[in-house]
Inverse folding.
């Protein structure tokens, strides 16, 4: 029987009372099961951290000695048990090391997606689908009007200008995906990377990901080369240099409202869109869908006559 309170949303995060652990907690807890290393899912300081090895590397870089007490590193599909709940990590396709968290208790399987994507991406493990009785899915883009275009087609927009480009992107995941895409589809571009992004790029390479050509940003190089340079910067730097001259400003995101001031709209998202969520539900074949991270109301309406959809947050 599905336990309606197996996962509950609290101010600290998603809590599994039966296993006495949290999924991606927002505050420091005793036992944290972490899906991936983005800052809104992986804070520092938890006493026991259960995650993939790559996720731990990103967390230890970001939080240094405050990353966490004891790290318990698990490979994909490796079972472990917390207070009677059997847990394993399934590739989520979001960023390198990202995982969906499969939990089994009293014969019922609950699959928490964390963030996930279905689009191909050479820089991380592709998503895998496993059957579950309850799918706990993120609904960041759960809107029938949202369709993410193919990243391979979007990146070609950069070939439409020879002007130098300041390209804003998240330092972990999006940055590495864009470097790979530009190497494959924008061979004329010379890629310069902001120093704060470089350690994440190096961790990708240390884990066997071929990033292609890129170099550390050098102000003189950028100044003396008026064409075909792409300077990759994190969001904070992108926002602070809003008066940068002699560059076209581009921000890579799936959010339309963040594209308003960009001269080139680059819709590259690392999340599932509406069709992807529907496809995932079809593959997992759950009896119930619980939604998290975003608005699940449209999903609830869509499945009103065929599937139980519960909004966790």
């Amino acid at each position: 029987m599905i336990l309606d309170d197996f996962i509950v949303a609290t101010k600290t995060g998603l809590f599994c009372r039966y296993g006495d652990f949290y999924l991606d907690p927002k505050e420091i807890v005793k036992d944290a099961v972490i899906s991936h290393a983005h800052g809104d899912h992986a804070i520092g300081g938890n006493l026991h951290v259960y995650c993939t090895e790559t996720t731990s590397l990103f967390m230890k870089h970001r939080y240094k000695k405050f990353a966490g007490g004891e790290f318990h590193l698990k490979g994909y599909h490796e079972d472990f048990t917390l207070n009677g709940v059997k847990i394993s990590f399934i590739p989520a396709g979001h960023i390198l090391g990202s995982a969906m968290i499969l939990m089994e208790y009293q014969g019922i399987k609950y699959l928490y997606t964390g963030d996930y994507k279905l689009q191909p991406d050479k820089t991380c493990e592709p998503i895998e689908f496993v059957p579950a009785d309850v799918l706990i899915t993120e609904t960041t883009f759960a809107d029938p009007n949202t369709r993410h275009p193919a990243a391979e087609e979007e990146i070609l927009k950069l070939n439409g200008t020879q002007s130098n480009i300041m390209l804003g992107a998240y330092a972990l995941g999006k940055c590495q995906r864009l470097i790979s895409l530009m190497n494959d589809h924008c061979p004329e571009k010379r890629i310069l990377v902001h120093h704060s992004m470089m350690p994440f790029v190096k961790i990708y390479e240390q884990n066997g990901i071929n990033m292609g050509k890129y170099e550390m940003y050098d102000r003189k190089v950028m100044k003396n080369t008026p064409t075909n340079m792409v300077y990759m910067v994190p969001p904070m730097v992108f926002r602070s240099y809003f008066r940068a001259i002699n560059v076209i400003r581009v921000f890579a995101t799936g959010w339309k409202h963040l594209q308003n001031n960009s001269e080139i709209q680059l819709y590259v998202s690392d999340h599932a869109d509406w069709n992807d969520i529907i496809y995932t539900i079809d593959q997992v074949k759950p009896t119930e869908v619980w939604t998290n991270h975003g608005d699940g109301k449209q999903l609830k309406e869509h499945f009103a006559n065929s599937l139980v959809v519960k909004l966790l947050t």
